[in-house]
Specification:
Strand order of the largest sheet: 1-2
Number of strands: 2
Number of helices: 3
Length: 171
């Protein structure tokens, strides 16, 4: 529950400003002073529409932030957030995972197909109703391999991705 929920004044706790400027607590130099902000996104891949929109929004927050520093901020290394361009990262599930080689199998992410289904099976198996596939006629193209999903395979990929995130967040 957000702190102002009792007064009904807790609606804006995102990156936006809001009428009372609460968004500033998420910006460098704001109340919370995050060193890094990660937005985990996987739908449609790292270059899909959602990622592009999130990257644009992150860019706007950075632009608004540096604008407050004045026109000379980029000419010196002495500014409030030295890593301003890496401050907000839109990341994919395996952005920080290390593959054995360039040719190594990649995490199979798709739209409700085998890869996405097996990740959900591994994380929240009780929410996946595989029998529902049989009720779909015709079966959407992206669902064609969903029946091949395997919870154990999903668990392996989840662990692979989690290890990458743990390494990144521990640095």
């Amino acid at each position: 529950m957000c702190p102002d929920a009792a007064t009904g004044d807790g609606a804006d706790y995102g990156l936006g400003g809001g009428s009372r400027g609460r968004g500033d607590r998420f910006r460098p130099g704001g109340v919370l002073r995050f060193r890094r902000i990660y937005i985990l996104q996987h739908h449609q891949g790292p270059d899909g529409l959602e990622s592009l929109c999130l990257k644009r929004a992150a860019g706007e927050v950075v632009r608004e932030t540096v604008h407050k520093w004045g026109t000379g901020w980029g000419r010196t290394e002495d500014h409030p957030t030295p890593n301003i361009f890496g401050w907000i990262q839109v990341a994919y599930v395996d952005s920080f995972s290390t593959y054995a080689s360039a040719e190594a199998e990649r995490i199979p992410i798709d739209h409700a197909g085998r890869g996405e289904t097996q990740l959900i099976q591994a994380a929240h198996g009780d929410t996946v109703r595989m029998a529902a596939l049989a009720t779909l006629d015709p079966l959407s193209r992206w669902l064609e391999d969903a029946d091949e999903a395997d919870a154990d395979e999903g668990a392996r990929w989840l662990e692979f991705c989690v290890q990458g995130w743990v390494t990144e967040l521990s640095r």
